[in-house]
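Hi everyone, sorry if this is the wrong subforum. Our group has a chain we'd like a structural model of before ordering constructs, and none of us has done structure prediction before. Sequence below.
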Amino acid sequence: MKQAFIKLHLSILLAGFTGIFGKVITLNEGLLVWYRMMLAAVVMGVVLLLRLRRYPRPWRLFGVGSLLALHWVFFFGSIKASNVSVGVVCFSLAGFFTALLEPLLNHRRVSFKELAFSLITLAGIGLIFHFDVRYRTGIVLGVVSALLAALFTITNKQAGGKCASSVMLFYEMLGGFLLLTLLMPFYLYFSPVETMLPDRQDVACLLVFVVFCTVLLYLLQIDVLKQISAFTVNLSYNLEPVYSILIAMLFLGEAKELSFSFYTGLGLILLSVLLQTWHVRWVEQESCKVE
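Answer:
Right subforum, don't worry. Here is the predicted structure as tokens:
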């Protein structure tokens, strides 16, 4: 379990750079996610081919990848409509949605402790945006993104089973890419662009983004979901805003846009993560005593 938590927090650290790439890459959110999933599918496809082995074809993962693709589109749409800080803080609602949806989809009772930890996060987000509604469009897109992220994590855990992480990631990236390819003509009709081709800077950023913040990140996350609940994973990802905001302060100068209420709300989000981490460790220790 300790190794799983190390992998979890390494994936969160990598995720902290996701919002930065979303802001720096000049492609709109649809094309950005389309290229991201295409390149990630190619990378994983090459890796699987080099192993010269036959792999199962879990077609259900295509649907899981489609959820991930839609989550990314709304997430990057939120960032581009507001800023990195707003986008990643809205993502913190994923833990709240997971606390509500996971019991429903897995046919178990709602955990009031999970709900209580999520409500602390919700209070933090409410405090952050109570005095600052300059980015309403970004907030709405971010909330939808969080809902899709919760559904993705829950279904990803259900669909994984004993399937290898690399195989899961390949089919999810391929499924998301195919969905976006089908939707792209309609998307570009409503959001026309001068060119679909990225420039040199975007290509360099995309390659780094795909290798480290997509392939490596999601391989770690898939491994973690085999040992840790979807709720704990999503609630722990509430730490992503901390990393993203610190990076955005350093490279994008966003500190001047953030108020005292923002930092207070962020503190509540951090508190919810610490309480859940402590709770999981306590349950683990108690189960060891019983054994």
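For your construct planning: The chain has one domain: 2-290. Residues 2-290 form one domain.
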